[in-house]
């Protein structure tokens, strides 16, 4: 080291002295002291190394742990948080309302909340309800007050809206023709100056607070019958109130929390949001003894008719023996309001992306709903299928509980339905009586899982086939000769007026006068006689005791059936083969029962009531019961009226609705 | 001079070590004390109040859920493992006070309980009470797999896990759902972005790494450490089941789904009919094999159908199952015959006095012409294979697969096994083009993993090729 020194460095020199010192120490100091010192030095060095290692290890372990714990359990999907609009503390809303012949729109703070410029649609008075504290749209309705009765619906709606809400009105095209004085007075009471004088083809906009101030009104009179008033645009400001003022002060319970959430979002449900005395949203009907359908899932098929759904769920949850946990509401589309209704009642709801169009869409929605139902309740052997426009009888579940074992045991059964197609006010009498019919009525029915899984689901009509699911289910390829059990008096009531194949006229003609059971706990009679063979025995017994009516009279006349009560009568009509329903259709027409297609038959036999007597109709010679016809009787033949072009088309389309 | 040097050296070294000692103290104080559960308790041993804390938290939790009438049961693997050792003793002494806290005080971060979804109503009240009792809780929700097959039903989210934390202990409540196929399912635990990743040491959870499938357990009420809890009647078999409970969702595979979209499903009548037959044959086969206790999985075309379209492939003609040769039982053939499925042919051999087992394959004739094939798989060091034999020529074929493990899945309303590494399995068998439906398939040449494996000696034909 010494020889190799280009620089006059101090270091090597110093090192040398260190070394010398050690050397000196080693040679001259006492061994013990030396040992102690080296020991200490070594120990310290080891401590240092161990410490460094420990720190590095723990560090790494901890780091890995953190990394992994996060990695393993991270959701792969990045939840992109939608940036929320900053809550504006603005107390004033700018409202713009436009009314004209072909277009209406409403904008709140620059956001369009209503825009309708479609042709041939949206005629009448458009109403929007805003929350007075938040400015959110709570309800949107259009009442075609050009047509009759729509003004009544509007009055009903306006009366249901809570005090303090902001109401916006605008007319598209025409809104005065059937706007009666009652409705005009309601509008007047809201503060409208113009409403009492609204006339043919006037344009009108109005913004006001229910039970409070008026924010603005504009009107344009129609100069002549053939022309419309000039478009009007109303721009005004609305002052918002505080949230506390806009809410009711119900006691803080789980139920009221649901109520509060609901009532701050939507309007038009009446007393459920009343501050003083709100209508209950929990019903606790009496439980059923020995309820055989307690564990049967209930699928409610719904679209975007939240008011219907509300009414339907109320009646369903009030039925004895209902089990809310088994109910699932399937909503066809991403509609918020139906979901709000479902949540109000604390039920579970599932939204369904709409695929396909019209009838096929309904059909696909049905399929998805049924599949989902059996997936969610894998133990279930059956499912109850309901629609949103049905009232449910108080003894609906009692009726099913008494009859469901038949569906399990009798292979010749296709379904149990709560609906009797021919059960009108004047043709149904006995709540304890059941029938077997070859048609599938739907409208509240029970489906067997094995039927669905093994037969229906695999070949359910695909979206491109624009078929009605119920029509498809009625086809012989699916039904395979099996029958449904129905009650004489229906356990459901079809109240829907707005629907895919539905309108007011059609509803009035075919559904309004349908009989609906309101008696609780009806004990069904002879449930066992509904089995395949037992039912034949029963029919033969009935025919045996039945009195043959006078076939020379006109069966459409009231006098055809004697003025008795509780007797059994039989009549024979001509029916050449199984599919010959010529006479039956005419008879159904004059009896004012379902005549759009054939319903309620069992082997060429129909059972109904007339003047409180059981009334049997046998098709001869196609029916096997023809043998019961006395030889002296000639079966009645009724000729169909000469077809009028065009007149037939309406019922043909309408027939699809009755499901 | 020398003395100074020496003192300097010593002082320097002492200083360094002192610094390190200080650093160590600091480190323990600020890092380890935060992680109170794990390392700290190990370091300090069990003299602290930690043990009691665990017992108290469990007791509080049990009080909470019983006040809301929620029937939970214990599935904690650590405690069940301890319980299993003393099971007889525990069963016999239901009410006697226990002398020491043996089970619920065992060191751990979590106690895991299970809850059957359908037995409670999702009341919000539970969480309010929990908060009042001092629990912090976390709810993990995710998509409902029961609706996943139906892409058009919007993602309804269901609660899969709850975690209740109190002091240094946490309760992990796993929600089990009943699914088609008569089994219970629990979901994976995945944290959403906004969730607190440090709420508990998630990595230590024993459930939630993967979804799992279980049989419906039989339960019994026992008293452990003076706490009444329900536990699986046979903790040992539950733990066994747990170790092999990983579940795969066929819809999980996006690829599988897109394949389904690309080649729309055939829904003609004969397809519907074939699927129905295949389904009932599979149901029968699963019942028979489960009764025998033979472990099997979906193989070949049936596995491809599951993976590709979550259904039976329309134009296949049989149902294929795989069984490891070590699970072979002589009862298989009579059991199937008893179930109404006669043996159609048997290829290969199992135990032949002086020869090794080779290329075993059983075929059973189902109703209406659908065939059930059971292939036996042989494990080698780096691969697994099964064999095939052509009846008329006696030629042997070998199908090679990479090694795989088994997972549960649901197929046509059955809980069955599939290889966890499904993609590799399917690709080995069908090549990279497995997505494209093929109507004609030759089992001797089409598979991409086939190897010619020689010819059976003619004198053995009678044994190795049996056709009925």
Mean pLDDT of chain A: 86
User: What is the molecular shape of chain B?
Assistant: globular
Per CATH, the architecture of the largest domain in chain A is Alpha-Beta Complex
Low-confidence stretches of chain A: 1-6, 76-87, 645-659
3D architecture notes:
The complex is a heterodimer of chains A (659) and B (468). Chain A has three domains: 154 residues, no CATH class; 230 residues, Spore Coat Polysaccharide Biosynthesis Protein SpsA, Chain A (Alpha-Beta Complex); 98 residues, no CATH class. Helix content of chain A is 31%, strand content 20%. Chain A contains 17 helices and 24 strands. An eight-stranded mixed beta sheet of chain A has the order 12-11-10-13-17-15-18-16, with helices on both faces. A five-stranded antiparallel beta sheet of chain A has the order 5-4-6-7-8, covered by helices on one side. Chain A has a five-stranded mixed beta sheet with strand order 20-21-24-23-22, sandwiched between helices. The radius of gyration of chain A is 39 Å and the shape is flat. Chain B is of the alpha+beta class and 468 residues long. Chain B contains 13 helices and 20 strands. In chain B, strands 10, 11, 12, 13, 14, 15, 16, 19 and 20 form a nine-stranded mixed beta sheet that branches. In chain B, strands 1, 2, 3, 4, 5, 6 and 7 form a seven-stranded mixed beta sheet that branches. In chain B, strands 8-9 form a two-stranded antiparallel ribbon. In chain B, helix 10 packs across helix 12. The longest helix of chain B has 31 residues. Chain B is globular and about 90 Å long. Chain B: It comes from Oreotrochilus melanogaster. Chain B: One of its GO terms (cellular component) is Golgi membrane. Chain B: Belongs to the LicD transferase family.
């Amino acid at each position: 080291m010494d020889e190799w020194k280009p620089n006059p460095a101090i270091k090597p020199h110093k090192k040398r002295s260190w070394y010398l010192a050690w050397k000196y120490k080693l040679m001259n100091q006492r061994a013990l002291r030396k040992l102690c010192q080296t020991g200490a030095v070594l120990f310290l060095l080891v401590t240092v190394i161990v410490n460094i290692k420990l720190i590095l290890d723990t560090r790494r372990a901890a780091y890995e742990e953190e990394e992994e714990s996060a990695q393993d359990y991270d959701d792969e999907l990045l939840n992109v948080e939608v940036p929320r609009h900053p809550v504006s503390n603005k107390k004033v809303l700018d409202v713009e309302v436009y009314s004209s012949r072909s277009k209406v729109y409403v904008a709140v703070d620059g956001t369009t909340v209503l825009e309708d410029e479609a042709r041939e649609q949206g005629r009448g008075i458009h109403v929007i309800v805003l929350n007075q504290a938040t400015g959110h749209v709570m309800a949107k309705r259009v009442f075609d007050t050009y047509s009759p009765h729509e003004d009544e619906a509007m009055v009903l709606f306006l009366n249901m809206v809570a005090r303090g809400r902001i109401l916006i009105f605008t007319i598209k095209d025409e809104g005065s023709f059937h706007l009666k004085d009652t409705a005009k007075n309601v509008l007047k009471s809201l503060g409208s100056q113009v409403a009492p004088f609204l006339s043919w083809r006037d344009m009108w906009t109005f913004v006001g607070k229910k039970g409070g101030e008026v924010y603005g009104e504009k009107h344009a009179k129609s100069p002549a019958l053939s022309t419309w008033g000039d478009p009007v645009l109303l721009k005004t400001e609305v002052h918002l109130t505080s949230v506390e003022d806009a809410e009711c002060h119900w006691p803080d319970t789980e139920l009221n929390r649901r109520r509060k959430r609901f009532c701050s979002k939507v309007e038009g449900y009446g007393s459920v949001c009343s501050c003083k005395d709100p209508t209950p949203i929990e019903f606790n009907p009496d439980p059923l003894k020995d309820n055989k359908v307690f564990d049967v899932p209930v699928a409610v098929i719904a679209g975007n008719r939240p008011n219907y759904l509300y009414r339907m769920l109320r009646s369903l949850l009030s039925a004895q023996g209902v089990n809310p946990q088994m109910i699932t509401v399937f909503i066809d589309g991403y509609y918020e309001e139906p979901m709000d209704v479902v949540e109000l009642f604390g039920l579970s709801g599932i939204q369904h992306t709409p695929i396909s169009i019209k009838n096929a869409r309904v059909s696909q929605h049905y399929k998805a709903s049924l599949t989902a139902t059996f997936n969610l309740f894998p133990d279930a052997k059956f499912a109850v299928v309901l629609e949103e426009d049905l009232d449910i009888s108080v003894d609906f579940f009692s009726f099913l509980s008494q009859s469901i074992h038949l569906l399990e045991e009798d292979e010749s059964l296709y379904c149990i339905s709560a609906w009797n197609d021919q059960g009108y006010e004047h043709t149904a009498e006995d709540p304890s009586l059941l029938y077997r019919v070859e048609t599938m009525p739907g409208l509240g029915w029970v489906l067997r899982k094995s039927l669905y899984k093994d037969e229906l689901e695999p070949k359910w009509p695909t979206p491109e086939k624009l078929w009605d699911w119920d029509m498809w289910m009625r086809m012989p390829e699916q039904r395979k000769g099996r029958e449904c059990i129905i009650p004489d008096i229906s356990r459901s009531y079809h109240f829907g007026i707005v629907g895919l194949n539905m309108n007011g006229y059609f509803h009035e003609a075919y559904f309004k006068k349908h009989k609906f059971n309101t008696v609780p706990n009806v004990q069904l009679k002879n449930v066992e006689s509904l089995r395949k063979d037992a039912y034949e025995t029963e029919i033969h017994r009935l025919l045996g005791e039945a009195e043959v009516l006078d076939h020379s009279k006109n069966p459409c006349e009231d006098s055809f059936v004697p003025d008795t009560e509780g007797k059994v009568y039989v009549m024979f009509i001509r029916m050449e083969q199984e599919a010959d329903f010529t006479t039956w259709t005419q008879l159904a027409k004059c009896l004012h029962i379902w005549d759009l297609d054939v319903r309620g038959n069992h082997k060429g036999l129909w059972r109904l009531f007339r003047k409180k007597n059981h009334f049997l109709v046998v098709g001869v010679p196609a029916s096997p019961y023809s043998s019961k016809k006395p030889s002296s009787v000639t079966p009645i033949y009724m000729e169909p009226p000469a077809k009028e072009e065009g007149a037939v088309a309406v019922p043909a389309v309408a027939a699809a609705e009755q499901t | 001079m020398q003395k100074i040097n020496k003192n300097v050296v010593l002082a320097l070294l002492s200083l360094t070590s002192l610094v390190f000692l200080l650093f160590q103290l600091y480190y323990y104080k600020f890092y380890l004390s935060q992680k109170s559960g794990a390392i700290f308790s190990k370091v300090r041993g069990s003299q602290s109040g930690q043990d009691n804390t665990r017992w108290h938290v469990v007791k509080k939790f049990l009080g909470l859920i019983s006040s809301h009438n929620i029937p939970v049961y214990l599935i904690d693997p650590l405690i069940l493992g301890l319980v299993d050792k003393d099971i007889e003793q525990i069963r016999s002494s239901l009410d006697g006070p226990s002398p020491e806290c043996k089970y619920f005080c065992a060191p751990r971060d979590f106690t895991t309980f299970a809850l059957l979804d359908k037995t409670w109503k999702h009341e919000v009240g539970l969480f309010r009470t929990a908060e009042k009792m001092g629990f912090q809780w976390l709810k993990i929700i995710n998509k409902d797999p029961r609706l996943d097959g139906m892409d058009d039903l919007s993602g309804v989210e269901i609660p899969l896990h709850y975690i209740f934390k109190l002091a240094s202990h946490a309760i992990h409540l796993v929600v089990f759902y009943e699914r088609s196929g008569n089994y219970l399912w629990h979901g994976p635990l995945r944290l959403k972005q906004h969730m607190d990743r440090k709420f508990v040491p998630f990595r230590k959870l024993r459930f939630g790494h993967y979804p799992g499938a279980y049989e419906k357990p039989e339960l019994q009420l026992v008293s452990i450490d003076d706490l009444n809890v329900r536990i699986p009647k046979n903790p040992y078999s539950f733990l066994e089941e747990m170790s092999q409970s990983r579940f795969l969702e066929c819809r999980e595979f996006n690829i599988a789904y897109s394949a389904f979209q690309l080649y729309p499903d055939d829904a003609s009548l004969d397809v519907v009919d074939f699927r129905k037959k295949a389904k009932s044959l599979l149901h029968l086969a699963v019942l028979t094999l489960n009764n025998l206790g033979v472990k099997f999985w979906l193989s070949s075309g049936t596995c491809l159908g599951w993976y590709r379209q979550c259904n039976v492939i329309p134009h296949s003609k049989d149902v294929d199952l795989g069984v490891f040769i070590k699970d072979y039982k002589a009862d298989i053939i009579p059991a199937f015959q008893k179930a109404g499925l006669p043996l159609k042919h048997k290829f290969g051999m199992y135990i032949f006095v002086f020869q090794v087992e080779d290329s075993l394959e059983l075929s059973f004739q189902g109703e209406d012409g659908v065939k059930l094939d059971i292939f036996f798989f042989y494990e080698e060091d780096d691969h697994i294979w099964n064999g095939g034999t052509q009846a008329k020529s006696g030629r042997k074929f070998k199908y090679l697969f990479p090694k795989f493990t088994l997972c549960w899945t649901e197929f046509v309303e059955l809980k069955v096994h599939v290889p966890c590494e499904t993609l590799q399995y399917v690709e080995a068998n069908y090549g990279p083009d497995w997505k494209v439906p093929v109507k004609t398939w030759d089992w001797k040449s089409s598979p991409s993993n086939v190897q010619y494996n020689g010819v059976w000696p003619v004198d053995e034909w009678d044994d190795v090729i049996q056709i009925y």
